[in-house]
Amino acid sequence: MANSKRTIFTVFVLTVMSLLNNMDRVTVSGVLPDIKKAFDLNNGQAGIIQSVFIISYLTFSPVFGFLGDRYNRNTLMSMGLLMWASVTFASSFVAKGKQHFWLFLLLRACSGIGEASYGIIAPTIIADLFTDRKRTTALALYYLAVPIGSALGFLVGTFVAKAAKTWRAAFWVSPGIGVVTAVICILFNENPPRGNAEVNSNVTDNWHGFRATSWITDIKAILKTRTYVLSSLGYACQFFTIGALAFWSAPTLYYLQLSITGHATLLQTGLYFGIILCFGGIAGVLTGAGAASYLKENVIKEGDAIVCAVGMATSGISLYLCLVFGEFSIVIAWVFVFMGCFAIFLLTTPITDILLYTIPPARRSTAEAFQIAVGHLLGDAASPYIVGAISDAITINKSPVAQSYALRYSLLICTFVCMLGCGFHLFASLTLVNDREKMLRLIGDNDVLVDDQQVVSENSDILQEKTPLLR
User: Fold this and answer.
1) What is the pLDDT of residues 66-83, one digit of tens each?
2) Number of structural domains the chain divides into
3) Exposed, middle or buried: residue 408 (CB in 10 Å: 0-12, 13-18, 19+)?
4) DSSP-assigned states of every residue in 192-247
């Protein structure tokens, strides 16, 4: 089992990448009202900013999944990180005016390509460094970057924009950190062989199942794993909700406070939301990882799926209470925002753990990419635009009261999606144990299941197919 200082350092660098990834995604939301003014946008048009980014991300996720299962992962991540840093910095210099909005969208799309590289590949490196409880712990630390990065995106974006007196400054901080991280990654990060952790921990004593097959073979095998398919649909529901809330929560709460108290600033709203997102998210990630590990080891083997289901249901209820009763008190709104953030982040580690122990090592990058592509396609690729378009349909009045009402009631669609996600995870719990045992047989036995047929490993398509050795 890997436990060297270099291994720990590698996990730290990958976590920094995830931190930058999530900072960038919500920076736009922190300064969204100013961006709307700069390019003369309505809510529907503003929602396109996030949709374009997500569509680009999901389009290139399968590409990096395919490459990540076959080529040097540190090189791929570093190249993607450098691309992301360049276009993110460049987007801050787009001239104002509606006629230049297309260029801002193009640069946001290019940043999605860069993020797809390290967002897809990083969890698979952690999977090849650890197994079991240590893997869960490492993933929990890695995914702490989601709430912390999201909070920093709001806080750094709004504070830097306020200090520099321009929204453009919000895009000046993270690119510099990204360049340094890319150089460190390619020079110092570990790049373990696929399946290294399973071999070192005696899950299996050979390398069966660790060589690449064709992309079509990978996809066919992955889609026959019912737990993976169901959890991916639940993942899409989570992404739909997170995408809508990450983009519209700060503006909604800003308009809500204006309508209740008559006074609010983007800096104040960004500060409150950032703090709640950070602490609620950290508590959710750690609680979800700990609860899933305890349940798996002591109560029920389907613990990961159960935690995911509870998280989705609780987040849906909290969101509904926030949107319906928040108009009576801004304090009530903030309380339920915290509960919703806590609940939605319960899923972060368990849902990745499910993928890693139901999919063989040589297919994990592809499975991760496919899951993220489906999650974004059915989730946050459309949800920011859908919420914005619904709010525009409710009213075109620009007053704080009208905007607060329209955005709150358009966000109610997320409560239904949360309950749908809960159902998918409950169904996944029914097949989880069987799919995990099937994967262990695939990588560890002489007689294994391949494409649902019993064959001996010497005749397996995984071993016989003519594909390049993993690097």
Assistant:
1) 887 778 888 888 998 999
2) 1
3) buried
4) PPTTHHHHHTTS-SS-TT-S---HHHHHHHHHT-HHHHHHHHHHHHHHHHHHHHHH
Q: Give the C-alpha separation, 448 to 71, whole Å.
A: 26
Instruction: Please give the backbone phi and psi of residue 454, each rounded to the nearest 5 degrees, phi first.
Output: -80, 120
Q: From 221, 227, 222, 225, select the one nearest 430 (Cα to Cα).
A: 227
Kindly indicate the confidence band of residue 318, based on its pLDDT and cuts at 50, 70 and 90: very high
Identify the three-state secondary structure at position 424: helix
DSSP-assigned letters across all residues of 155-168: HHHHHHHHHHTSGG
This prediction has a pTM of 0.69
* Domain enclosing residue 345, as ranges: 5-464
Q: What is the pLDDT of residues 372-387, one digit of tens each?
A: 778 878 887 788 888 8
In a domain, 470, yes or no: no
Rg of the chain over all Cα atoms, to the nearest angstrom = 22
The angle at the Cα of 171, spanning 349 to 52, to the nearest 5 degrees, equals: 65
Find tokens 């798996």 and name the residue. Answer: 296
**What CATH code is carried by the domain that includes residue 430?**
1.20.1250.20
Mean pLDDT score of the chain, rounded to an integer? Answer: 80
pLDDT tens-digit profile of 423-445?
Answer: 999 999 998 888 888 877 776 54
